[in-house]
Automatic annotation (TrEMBL):
The gene is WBGene00277236. Heme binds at residue 126. It comes from Pristionchus pacificus. This is Cytochrome P450. PANTHER family: CYTOCHROME P450 FAMILY. The lineage of its organism: Eukaryota, Metazoa, Ecdysozoa, Nematoda, Chromadorea. Signal peptide: none annotated. It holds the Pfam family p450. InterPro entries: Cyt_P450, Cyt_P450_E_grp-I, Cyt_P450_sf. GO terms for molecular function: heme binding; iron ion binding; monooxygenase activity; oxidoreductase activity, acting on paired donors, with incorporation or reduction of molecular oxygen. Keywords: Heme, Iron, Metal-binding, Monooxygenase, Oxidoreductase.
Length: 179
């Protein structure tokens, strides 16, 4: 998002129209901020912190789309791969929050949303997904309400992650401009 200041401006104008420049953000404001919500989903799609899911195991012989998987197989689902390569994500390398909204710019797009699965899916999906989603929403809104974030002044922006079990951002000395 840092690489797209105009997109930040669009989110900020949505924030200001709902809670103003100095208002306090509440979770009950989220339904009125469809663009900010879509931008967070897009952020998690393109910059997912978990490159691979955790390992699962089949407890019975299983078949997925005609592919037989015997009992006791270890399964490592590639969440990031799905979010990059699913056919519902048109021009998937581009950062476009609009892909999670219908043409009216407000209604959530169920087709794309159901393929954005940073928290995995079904019974073992992230146990604190709702808490993480709250933290992401409140944190992002509180920052963008007050600041325009720009890339470092004297160095190139490096958005490539430190690779590991989870992806960690590299240090970048950002500019935070009060708006
Ligand atoms: C952006 C933040 C987060 C992401 C992307 C994320 C993602 C995930 C993923 C992909 C799994 C594995 C699901 C599976 O086995 O298929 C998981 C499991 C889990 N997560 Fe998160 N998580 C996040 C934040 C959190 C937070 C803040 C907490 C706790 C405060 C948490 C608690 C857990 C727990 C307890 C499990 C294990 C669930 C189980 O095996 O039944 N997560 N998470």
């Amino acid at each position: 998002m840092l690489a797209y200041p105009s997109l930040q401006d669009r989110i900020r104008s949505e924030i200001h129209s709902v809670i103003g420049r100095d208002g306090e953000i509440l979770m009950s404001d989220r339904p009125n901020m469809p663009y900010a919500s879509a931008a967070i989903t897009e952020l998690q799609r393109v910059a997912n912190i978990l490159p691979l899911n955790v390992v699962h195991r089949t407890t019975v012989d299983t078949e997925v789309h005609g592919q037989f998987i015997p009992e006791n197989s270890h399964i490592l689902a590639q969440i990031s791969n799905m979010m990059k390569n699913s056919s519902v994500f048109d021009r998937s390398e581009e950062f476009r929050p609009e892909r999670f909204l219908m043409a009216d710019g407000k209604t959530p797009n169920k087709t794309t949303l159901e393929q954005a699965v940073p928290f995995s899916m079904d019974k073992r999906q992230c146990a604190r997904e709702s808490l993480a989603r709250m933290e992401l929403f409140l944190g992002l809104v509180m920052i963008l309400q007050k600041y325009r974030i720009l890339p470092p002044k004297d160095a190139p922006l490096d958005l490539s992650p430190i690779e590991g079990i989870i992806h960690i951002p590299k240090t970048n000395y950002l500019q935070m401009i009060l708006v």
